[in-house]
Design a protein that fits this description.
It contains seven helices and three strands; from the N terminus they run H-E-H-E-E-H-H-H-H-H. It is α+β, with helices and mostly antiparallel strands. Strand 2 and strand 3 form a beta hairpin.
């Protein structure tokens, strides 16, 4: 995704007016933004030097738009799984805590799960204990097992709706 030729080609395709990109921050949200900016600066020379806290939406003079959201929140380290864990409804908090403890115990007992994958292991363990077990996060969102209307989701939803100019469809 962050290869210069890939994004530049996508931006120039005539069937794209808007291109939205989500990246995991991993350990450094600002570093991920700088990598993205370096790739896009030729096509978007006036792109801001810092990632806006509310996500990037940038429009060229020709009307082409590009957006970037760095998971989980454009600021924190982590990935989409960190964002998704905050969509777990409050009533299931004890089950979430048990999933985290279970993953930790599995590691003590010899699980080969790397530390960098703990957020993913915790989320998918929790999802394995829902009805229906083992759903992917997208299905869990559509079935409202994860709460897409949580306060944590609102900034991302606002960015998405603004990027694709859909604000009129929901009350932000």
């Amino acid at each position: 995704m962050l290869e210069k030729d890939f994004l530049s080609a996508k931006i120039k395709e005539s069937n794209y007016d808007t291109l939205g990109i989500m990246l995991d921050a991993d350990l450094n949200a600002e570093g991920r933004y700088q990598s993205f900016r370096n790739v896009c600066i030729g096509d978007f020379p006036d792109m801001p030097k810092q990632l806006p806290r509310e996500g990037l939406i940038h429009t060229k003079k020709d009307g082409k738009r590009i957006g970037l959201w760095v998971m989980p929140d454009n600021n924190s380290k982590g990935a989409i799984e960190v964002f998704l864990k905050y969509l777990i409804p409050g009533l299931t908090t004890p089950v979430w805590e048990h999933a985290v403890k279970s993953v930790a115990e599995a590691r003590v007992k010899g699980s080969t799960c790397k530390e960098c994958h703990l957020d993913k292991a915790n989320l998918f363990t929790w999802l394995a204990w829902q009805d229906e077990p083992g759903q992917n996060p997208g299905k869990a969102l559509t079935r409202k097992i994860l709460d897409p209307h949580s306060d944590t989701a609102k900034p991302f939803v606002r960015w998405f709706m603004e990027l694709y100019q859909l604000e009129h469809l929901i009350n932000l």
